[in-house]
Specification:
The chain has about 325 residues and is mainly α. It has helices spanning about 5-15, 40-50, 50-55, 75-90, 95-105, 115-125, 130-145, 155-160, 170-195, 205-210, 215-230, 240-260, 270-285, 290-300, 305-315, 315-330.
Length: about 325
C-alpha cells in the first residue's frame, strides 16, 4: 500500500460523512497517473502554490492602491488569511483540509492589477465582460504551464469558480472558503483602514462590538466559532442568524466608510483609466502582446478581447504602471 493510499484510508476513517474524500474525487479533465505520496487535493494545492499566477499576487492590490507602508494587505496576504481561516474551520468540522486549502489558495488567481477597480475597468471595456472568479478558472485550466493549465480536480475548480457571494459551491469545503473570504477581508480591511487613518475602532457602531467583538482577534474568534458551531455534523456550512446579519451590516458599514471613501479611493480613478487605456492600446496593437499569449490564441481560437484581458489581468500593479508609462508617458531623448 502506497503512502497516498494510507492517507486516503485515513480520510475515510476520520473525516466527516459530509467531507469530500480524495479517493472519491470526480477527477481531472486530463487523466494522469496518481502520485504515490500525495492524494489528489494535496497535489492541487501544491500546483497552485508553485504557479506563476500565485507569485504575482504579492504585487496586486487588495483594497488600498500602492499604499505607503509595508504592513498593508496585498492580494497574496489576503489569500493566505483566507486559507488560514478556512483550514481552521475545515479541521474543526473534520472536512477535507487539503481541498479547502487548495480552493483558498486559488480563489483570487484571476484578479487584475488594482483589485476590484481593475476588474470593473476590464468588465466595462470588454464587450464580453470580465469576472475575476471566471478568470481564476481560466488561469488554472488554460493559461498556466504555457497553455497546458494545472489540470486540477473538479472539486477545486468548482470551489474557485463559486467563491463569490453569488456562487453555490458543490462541496462543503468550497462553502467554507466562500465564507472565509468574507471573514478575512472584512477584518483585515478594518485593520488596514485603521492603519491608514481613515477609520478608528471607536467609530465602528457599538452594536457590532457587542455581537462580534471590538478587536480583530475577537471578531475573528466570534465569526469562526459561529461557523463551526452552526455547521457541525450538518450538510451545509452556515452561521447563526444574529452573527450573519451583523456581518452583513458590518460589510455595509465598510462600504460606506472605507470601500467608497474618497480618501482611500482617490487614486482609483487613475487606475481605472490606466486599465482602460491599456486595453484599448492592446486591442489596436495586438503585436505588443507577448508571443506566448498570441500562440495560445491561435491554438484555441480565443478572440482578441479575451487575449488582451488575459494579458492585462495577469499584470501586477507595478508592471501595469510600467507598461502604461512605456506607451503613454514621453521620455527624454538625446542625440
Amino acid at each position: 500500500m502506497t503512502i497516498r493510499e494510507q492517507l486516503e484510508r485515513r480520510e475515510t476513517e476520520y473525516l466527516s460523512r459530509y467531507a469530500a474524500l480524495s479517493r472519491n474525487s470526480k477527477g481531472r479533465k486530463r487523466k494522469e497517473p496518481q502520485c504515490d505520496i500525495r492524494p489528489v487535493f494535496q497535489r492541487d494545492r501544491d500546483r497552485i502554490l508553485h504557479c506563476k499566477a500565485f507569485r504575482r499576487l504579492k504585487q496586486k492590490t487588495q483594497v488600498f492602491l500602492l499604499p505607503n507602508g509595508d504592513h498593508y494587505r496585498t492580494r497574496l496576504t489576503h489569500t493566505l488569511e483566507v486559507s488560514q481561516n478556512a483550514r481552521t474551520i475545515a479541521k474543526a468540522l473534520r472536512l477535507n483540509e487539503d481541498l479547502t486549502e487548495a480552493i483558498a489558495l486559488g480563489h483570487d488567481l484571476g484578479h487584475t492589477p488594482f483589485g476590484h477597480a481593475g476588474e470593473r475597468a476590464l468588465n466595462e471595456v470588454n464587450p464580453f465582460g470580465f469576472c475575476h472568479n471566471v478568470q481564476s478558472v481560466r488561469i488554472v485550466e488554460r493559461l498556466e504551464k504555457e497553455g497546458r493549465g494545472l489540470n486540477l480536480t473538479w472539486e477545486v475548480v468548482d470551489g474557485i469558480l463559486n467563491h463569490k457571494s453569488s456562487g453555490n459551491p458543490r462541496t462543503l469545503e468550497g462553502q467554507i472558503v466562500r465564507l472565509s473570504d468574507k471573514i478575512a477581508y472584512l477584518n483585515h480591511d478594518i485593520d488596514d483602514a485603521i492603519r491608514g487613518g481613515i477609520l478608528t475602532e471607536r467609530e465602528i457602531p457599538e452594536e457590532f462590538h457587542k455581537i462580534l467583538g471590538d478587536t480583530t482577534r475577537k471578531r475573528l474568534n466570534t465569526l469562526i466559532h459561529d461557523v463551526v458551531t452552526n455547521s457541525m455534523d450538518q450538510p451545509k456550512i452556515s452561521m447563526s442568524e444574529e452573527v450573519e446579519e451583523a456581518m452583513k451590516e458590518l460589510r455595509a458599514f465598510m462600504f460606506e466608510r472605507v470601500y467608497l471613501n474618497p480618501v482611500a479611493k482617490r487614486e482609483e480613478k487613475k487606475a481605472v483609466r490606466m486599465i482602460r487605456d491599456l486595453y484599448r492600446f492592446y486591442m489596436e496593437n495586438l503585436d505588443e502582446i507577448p508571443k506566448e499569449y498570441q500562440s495560445m490564441q491561435g491554438e484555441s481560437g480565443v478572440n482578441s478581447e479575451q487575449m488582451v484581458c488575459d494579458y492585462i489581468a495577469g499584470m501586477t500593479d507595478t508592471y501595469a504602471v510600467k507598461k502604461f508609462e512605456d506607451y503613454f508617458v514621453p521620455k527624454s531623448w538625446k542625440i
